[in-house]
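Reproducibility note. Readers wishing to regenerate the assembly model reported in the main text can use the exact inputs given here. Chain order matters: entities are listed in the order in which they were concatenated for prediction.
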Amino acid sequence: MKRFNSTAAKIAIAASLGFFVVLWVAMVIAGVSGGGRFPLTTLQPQGPFSTLIDNLVAPVFIIAGIVFVGVLGTVFYIVMKYRVKGDPELDTAPMPRQTHGHTAAEVTWTAIPAAILAVVAVLTAITILDLSAEEPDSLQVEVFGQQWWWGFRYDVDNDGSFDSDSDVETAAELIIPVGRPVELSVTSNDVIHSFWIPALNGKRDAVPGMVSPWKIQADEPGVYRGQCTEFCGLSHANMRMLVRAIPADDYDRWIADQQKPAINPLAAQARAGLAEFNNNCASCHLVDGVNNEQLAETPAALVSGIAPNLTHLMSRGTFAGSIFNLHYPNPDGNNQPFGATCTDADAARLR
Amino acid sequence: MTVVDTPLELSSGNGSTSRPFGVFARPTGGPGWRSWLTTVDHKKIGIMYGAAALAFFIIGGVEALLIRAQLWAPRGTLLSADQYNQVFTMHGTTMVFLVVMPIGAAFANYLMPLQIGARDVAFPRINAFSFWAFLAGGLFINSSWFLGGGADGGWFMYAPNSTVTFSPSNGIDFWNLGLLITGIASLTGAVNLIVTVLNMRAPGMTMMKMPVFTWMTLVTQFLLLFAIPVLTAAQFLLLFDRNFDAAFFDVSKGGQPLLWEHLFWIFGHPEVYLMILPAFGLVSDILPVFSRKPIFGYTFIVFSGVAIGFMGWGVWAHHMFVSGIGPVSVLVFSLATMFIAVPTGVKILNWTATMVGGKISLTSPMLFCIGLITMFTIGGLSGVTHSVAPADTQQTDTYYIVAHFHYVLFGGAFFGFMGGFYYYWPKVFGYLLNEKLGKANFWLMFVGFNLTFGPMHVLGLQGMSRRIYTYDAGYGFEFWNKLATIGAFVLASSIALFIFNIFYSKVKAKSLPKPGPDPWDSRTLEWMIPSPTPEYNFDPIPTVTRLDDFWYRKYGETEDGRLVRIAATEDVTQSAEGEHNVHLPSPSYWPLVAAVGLPIVGYGLIFTWWLCLIGGLITAGALYAWALEPADDPDAGHGAGHDDHPVAGAAPEADLVDADADAGTGAGANGEGADAGTNGEGVTEREVETVG
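Running the prediction on these inputs yields the following structure tokens for the assembly.
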């Protein structure tokens, strides 16, 4: 074996190891400090359920970090200490003492990780049960996913059904009252999606043919973003979701507004918009009080059988899988939707 | 079964000279590319597995670079959404089924028979068939690029997104049928290697004297044996849904999407362990060599591997924590997953203890092994963080998971394989890879690997979802994605350096002394035979008395654990000039032909039914010919100077065996067993041992 200990090589190795340390330190700093600035971060809980998760994750990360530093440090120390220094060919040191094993050591290092994990296991079990407990006085909302948007049905009269007359259906944006738990019944109309608002809770898959319970709650008013996380086909990347938490009074007013059917427009521009809607959109999209009968006769020719309900569209902050913004700026401040082809004139007519 | 009370020795091809079916005469061996097509030699098959896997690795690597280039900046436009979905699906499929699994198979095929002192695997022709079926399946899947586009459902292929309604192109059919074919390859290979380990060990080699790599191969093949049928069952359901209008996953007709998830992950989780365990085995054999100490806690290393193999069956639903399986299931699988970290941790600590007090030579293979220990530890720890189910509801399907399994499969399995390549290269090809380049290779790969996959931890925790072809600015994704993309190209350059090293070292080797049988002063049996391995492996078959038998032919150990050299290496290694006549299995056309029929059936199912007929006839015909071809051909090549023609006194036995074969009771199987027979002594002793 040739020697490989020139100065350049030593510098390269030190640089590689140094790089490794710097990278990981930078990553830890980014994880601990930077997360809060970003809309989808999992590290800044904004509600009780995400806080439960965070309280469990934090110690686990710390334990993992200690083991990480411990194991890597030990391996590094051992390698540095016992490596053959200089040219192996010229090495005359005697062969090391041969050890074949040590039962007590084996038992110890089987038992210690098992004990650490047992502690983590207890904490995990408690959290899993807490997170699956039913919430009293919760708002019931059905969440249904389809390629590539989310619809929401509110059980306003609390009768266990989501399509009574007084119930409200909307899409793209889930409006919830601040401080009240919201129990979600998550399902899908076509393929598997996943509903995820990182600031409010973990994710829950929307599986066709299944209704899965999930719950969210926001402590403060605000807009909480999410992203579909179960690969669901072509536009999976653009299947975003959004929760807007508003004070309870505002929420009650909002529900009352949503229960009203759309107003038949009188102004000339608005009538032109209605004609446009009837020509281009009404065969799939429903606006309550405008085309209920038409859509009931000929259901939409879509795989999921349903397109977003557009009643009171302009009361929403966002539409089309939450990638087109009506009122919210994008995180980068750019309000122009990605790939938008809708001109201002079109938009004006549609109002 | 007829009772053969004489040793199972097919001492001569003498009896077969009558050639009852002349048309099925076996091909003759010899050099040249044709010999690779008909070979049944486990070493050539191992090399072909490795070469094919590296070729697929380059394809999968290019796909990875496309993914990283697309994600370089927000709203990348290099790939369309459709192209991106195909590329990441094929990247995952290729890396799992066509790279990591076959590299494991390459090492298992080449090394395991050598480590147990066997002449070949138990069923050499089935071994060849396994390789050709794997290659046929791999090429079949990749041919989809030219026939309408690759699969676009993700390597996990969740239904109903993978049904015709949602993916009407043929890509998923290619994926499905191709993996059914590679599944056949894996299954036949698993049976073959299990039988080999259990039945063909050299005299004296009890199970607890086997090298760790052989143990891990055994565990891996058992995992394959039970895991692949589950995937196959799931794939048949998908096949019927897609091609014959069944409705296993169609909710509107009473189907159940979670059925696919369960079946896929009952396969998929053991799959993870069967990808990593061969690398664990390699590390366990390489670390002691370069630490100059025996493996610490051999029994614990072996049984923690077995424990991982068993526990790996009870954790599949941790891939489904968010699928709505209910809190009790989540709890059970969460705890089971946590505790599988225990045997894994035992391995890591034993490897570390192996190095303690040793005399560590930081050669390239050793560097890669240390790389595995450290990088796999990171992957293992992030694995523990998502065994905590509530945490996993935040982490799953984000880039945090992508980081985790790349630390396991690249930082774990692939680093181990790289160590194996550098370590075994002289044994396989007769020349050492250049050490300077090897070390540069390691450090470049170490930096590139961490730069690629480290930032993905941060991306995932900041909420970047997996499998998205684009992302927007303002989510904190830009910087870390750029780092990862740079890292991917550094990583690619380290692979390029490895390939360069192969050719560079080959040229340089002409002016260097030959490495000899034992260039690293190693411990296991494969190092006592010449490099490159002669076709007949051992001559004679060694008798094993203890673990690391070869080592203890060179060294003795005093009572206080000091090593004493007791024999020069040259005196205990075998020379290329053997003393015995060696019988070897003859080459055969039929494994290749049988495998060629399979993808033709696949094309038939996709495009036009009559191709199924042609493909089916080819495979069935080849199997017939296989069964009917003579068990041996006297003219076949049997290795350098070790011709097999009868010596006086062997004839009666030959007649006996031949008569048995002619009687027609499983002639093929009989021939196969006899083909692969080690020397008679070995078999008899082993049988006595089994009975006893």
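We highlight two features of this model. Chain A has two domains: 7-87+99-132, 139-351. The longest strand of chain A covers residues 139-146.
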